[in-house]
Amino acid sequence: MPRILAAAADNRVALVFGPEDHGLSNEDLKVCQQLIAIPADPAYPSLNLAQAVMLCCYELFLAAAGTSQATRELARAEQIDLMFQKLRVAFRSIGFLHPDNPDHILFAFRRFLGRAQLEPRDVRILLGLARQIEWFGSGGHAVLARAAGEHQATAGR
């Protein structure tokens, strides 16, 4: 909760809750940058929506009472979404994603990158990485191989 409060100081932040019967959909989860799990007894692992909201608000209240963290600008949701779209294309270009279930790995990336609380510069770096991966997967590896062969031929003279 302290990280959420720190992010909220300079950024728009929302807590998103899903329906009690099945939680958030995969489409909903795709726009979330961080996930919160409320531990519960395994014998009765679910909470109703009001209880989940109350617990999160209470934890935010407690964190606000004792927090004075420095704030930093976080990447906007639109930037994060674009980054994941580009990563999807890039990962497909090198065969990294299973064609029948590409979201399986992308959800893992969303989860750990969400914990990182990306800043705009972080997103630009990851967009550059995605661009380079896509270039490589779309034939760039052949360009590199030709260039390496030409370099070896020139060096051998």
CATH topology of the largest domain, by name, is: Helicase, Ruva Protein, domain 3
Could you say which structural class the secondary elements and strand pairing correspond to?
Answer: mainly alpha
User: Judging from the principal axes of the Cα atoms, what is the shape?
Assistant: elongated
Distance between the termini: 64 Å
The CATH architecture assignment of the largest domain turns out to be Orthogonal Bundle
Uncertain ranges = none
Total beta strand runs: 0
Helix content class? 55-70%
Strand content: under 5%
CATH class of the largest domain: Mainly Alpha
The ordered H/E elements are: HHHHHH
Oligomeric state as shown: single chain
**Using only CA atoms, what is the Rg?**
21 Å
User: How many structural domains are formed by the residues?
Assistant: 2
The number of helices is: 6
Q: Residue-averaged pLDDT, rounded?
A: 87
What's the main sheet like? Answer: none
Report on the structure:
The chain has 157 residues and is mainly alpha-helical. It has two domains: 1-72, SPOUT methyltransferase, trefoil knot domain (Alpha/beta knot), CATH 3.40.1280.10; 75-157, Helicase, Ruva Protein, domain 3, CATH 1.10.8. It contains six helices and no strands. The protein has helices at residues 2-10, 26-30, 49-65, 77-93, 102-115, 120-155. Helix 4 packs parallel to helix 6. It starts with a helix and ends with a helix. The model has no long low-confidence stretch (mean pLDDT 87).
